[in-house]
Amino acid sequence: MTSPELARESLPRTLKRRIKRALGPWGVFFEGFLKHPVMVGSIIPSSRFTIQKMLAPVRWDECRLFVEYGPGVGTFCRPVLERLRRDGRLIVIDTNPLYIDYLRATIADSRFTAVLGSAADVEEIVRAHGFDHADYVLSGLPFSTLPDGIGPAIAAATHRVLRPGGAFLVYQFSARARDFMARHFTRIDQGFELLNILPCQLFWGWKDADPAE
Fold it and tell me: Is pLDDT above 50 for 4?
């Protein structure tokens, strides 16, 4: 291939890199959506109003381990770290290496760990990082579009990994996520955030203590 041909071949890549730099994290988020649309809930990160409302019920003084599924470019990561106690930990799990590489390169907090893997394996991931359970788990994964069996597996594993009194925090465009949660969480609080693109359903599934215990 001649030099002019190589130049023409590399032009789209160069243009793509420039667009990504100009858009910043939004560009990374959008690229991740294009590569794995069924695993990303939206092409636009959540609004600050959604973040505030979603995290409001968390008792941060009691939170030693916060886990997030599908962190994207860290829209929730930074607000969580701002609220998290000094000896707390935030573990985020994503199947998209683009997002994991971006988070590892941009978040230097020693309390933060980004794991390339499946949320269905949360129990193994939590144990591998020295914990028996999580206090809170946050998810923006699109339960209604996940491959068959993945949504139920994630909901079940999340309930098992949470401590009694902990909660599964879920934000979705569809109310169907509640159906996955209701199989394991008997107490589910529900909210709605209009100031988000698109308007967002919010759910908090609480793991009550076992009366036998």
Answer: no
Residue type, 33: F
Q: Which pLDDT tens digit goes with each residue over 66-117? A: 999 999 889 999 999 999 999 999 999 999 998 899 999 999 999 999 999 9
What pTM does this model have? 0.80
Q: How many CB atoms lie within 10 A of CB 164?
A: 11
Find all residues with CB under 8 Å of 168, minimum gap 6, and list them.
Answer: 136, 137, 139, 155, 158, 159, 162, 181, 185, 203, 204, 205, 207
Whether residue 63 is predicted with pLDDT greater than 90 in this model: the reply is: yes
Peptide bond before residue 198 is cis, with ω within 30 degrees of 0:
yes
| Residues 77, 25 contacting (CB under 8 angstroms) | no
Q: What strand order describes the sheet that includes 200-206?
A: 112-116, 89-94, 65-69, 134-139, 162-172, 200-206, 187-193
CA separation for the pair 109, 66 (Å, rounded): 14
Q: Which domains, and CATH codes, for the chain? A: 37-206 (3.40.50.150)
Judged on CB neighbours under 10 Å (0-12, 13-18, 19+), 156 is: middle
Query: Which residue's structure tokens are 């701002």?
Result: 82
